[in-house]
Structures are given as structure tokens and as C-alpha cells.
Amino acid sequence: MEHEESFEEREWIWADSAYPLQTWVVTPYKKPEHYEPDNLVFNKQVSNLCICSEHAIGFLKGHFHSLKNLRLTIMDMDSH
């Protein structure tokens, strides 16, 4: 919520297409732009990153069962 305080000038996060494109959020291309060849490659790379991230979180939750039901809201650097 406080991305100005959480990110430096050239930092950003990957997100899926449910999130709006912002200066600090990189999302896949949506229709009709995602049919361009370069955009298809970009979307594939973003998809691979999302899969790796989901696998990493699943791995952590599988090994540290206390994380399974952990729900936190990150509002600023202190809560991060």
C-alpha cells in the first residue's frame, strides 16, 4: 500500500494480470497486445517466474507447517 516507501526508484514487483499496470508493478500483456510475438515471449517469462514463486512458497509451507495458515498484511517497511 505504501509502495513509495517500500521500493527504491528503479525497483518493482512482478504480478499476475489481475493487478493493474503501475510504475512499480510489472504485469503480463493482456488481449489484444499479448498476441504480439515479443509480448508472447514476455508473458511466458512472467508465467515461469510466477510458477517458480508459487513452488518456492509451497516448498516453504511444506517444510514449515506454521506458515500454512499464516496471513499477514504488508503495509510498510516495519510490517515487511
Automatic annotation (TrEMBL):
InterPro entries in UniProt: HARBI1_dom (IPR027806)
Cofactor: a divalent metal cation
Occurrences of domain DDE Tnp4 (ranges): 7-70
UniProt entry keywords in alphabetical sequence: Metal-binding
A Pfam short name: DDE_Tnp_4
Record protein name field: DDE Tnp4 domain-containing protein
MF terms in GO: metal ion binding
Organism: Gymnopus androsaceus JB14
